[in-house]
User: Which sequence fits this backbone?
């Protein structure tokens, strides 16, 4: 129990540090590298939230598939939308 | 305590968790449409999109992100407390997270009011108008989810801290509302 609380506290610290990183990044980099930093950091934060806060760490495979299924379909949607714009 | 038609508690819990994730999937697709709009707008008008994004209040958004991340951590602690049958701790943590949700909404309202005073909220027709419309719809829809989520947290804290499945599923909803903001923030505020 004590260990679980400590783990959640460390994850919270990591999330706040990632927030600081992404805000700092917005003042220092622009263009494509800015997009890579902000979306890389956001993906890392959401991964931490899903894995530790939403307990996917301890769930079975089928529940993990249900949890990320919609995200996978959404990425396909966004990918094809981006291809449409990129090839005009 | 196992309800029909389940034969064991873990089986019931797995079904409840899976059902909740299916519902959260519909929420992801709902916001996904708005993210697709943001992607299209940015790819079609990269420079104007960045100009419009630069006008938003980065620091209010950053503080609000920290507020939501912290509330999510409290909810995760609450779920742990519920599993250890520490019902009082679950109630206190859920209520604290709900209060942070209200803080988020207060800051958001202050931000809308500031933008309105600056004439930013409803600019004339153009790409900036499209951006601000997207901003209003997506942050407004998210604020609606924060309102519902904070209400659910307070209700479970008051009436059902002893029902672990309700505690867990309410927690999952709150974490997803947090995760959606984690993406809305860079998409809208940090385009550079």
Assistant:
């Amino acid at each position: 129990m004590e260990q679980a609380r400590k783990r959640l506290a460390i994850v919270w610290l990591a999330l706040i540090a990632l927030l600081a990183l992404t805000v700092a990044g917005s003042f220092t980099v622009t263009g494509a590298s800015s997009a890579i930093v902000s979306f890389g950091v956001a993906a890392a934060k959401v991964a931490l939230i899903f894995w530790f806060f939403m307990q996917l760490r301890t769930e079975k495979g089928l529940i993990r598939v249900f949890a990320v299924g919609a995200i996978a379909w959404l990425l396909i949607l966004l990918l094809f939308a981006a291809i449409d714009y990129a090839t005009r | 305590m196992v309800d029909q038609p389940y034969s064991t508690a873990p089986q019931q819990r797995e079904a409840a968790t899976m059902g909740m994730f299916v519902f959260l999937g519909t929420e992801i697709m709902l916001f996904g449409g708005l993210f697709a709009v943001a992607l299209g707008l940015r790819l079609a008008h990269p420079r104007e999109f960045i100009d419009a994004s630069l006008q938003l209040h980065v620091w209010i958004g950053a503080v609000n992100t920290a507020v939501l991340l912290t509330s999510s951590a409290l909810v995760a602690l609450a779920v742990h407390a519920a599993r250890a049958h520490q019902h009082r701790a679950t109630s206190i943590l859920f209520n604290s997270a709900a209060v942070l949700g209200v803080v988020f909404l207060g800051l958001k309202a202050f931000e809308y009011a500031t933008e309105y005073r600056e004439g930013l909220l409803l600019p004339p027709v153009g790409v900036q108008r499209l951006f601000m419309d997207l901003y209003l719809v997506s942050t407004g829809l998210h604020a609606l989810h924060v309102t519902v989520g904070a209400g659910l947290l307070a209700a479970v804290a008051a009436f059902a801290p002893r029902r672990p499945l309700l505690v867990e599923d309410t927690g999952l909803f709150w974490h997803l509302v947090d995760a959606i903001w984690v993406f809305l923030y860079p998409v809208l505020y940090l385009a550079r």
About this structure: Chain A is about 85% helix and 0% strand. The radius of gyration of chain A is 16 Å.
